[in-house]
Amino acid sequence: MPRPNQPWPIRLTHWANVPLLVIMAGSGLQILAAYPILGPRGAPYHWYALNGYVPPAWLRIGGWLAGARHWHFAIMWVLVVNAIVYLAFLYAHGEWRELAPRRGDARRAWEMIAFYAFARKNHPRQGKHNALQKTAYFAMPVIATVIVVSGIAIWKPVQLHWLTMLFGGYVWARYVHFMAMILLVVLVFGHIFMVFAVDPYALRSMISGWYNEDLSPEARNARPFYHLLPRRKSAVGEPMRTEA
Question: Which domains, and CATH codes, for the chain?
Answer without folding.
Answer: 10-178 (1.20.950.20)
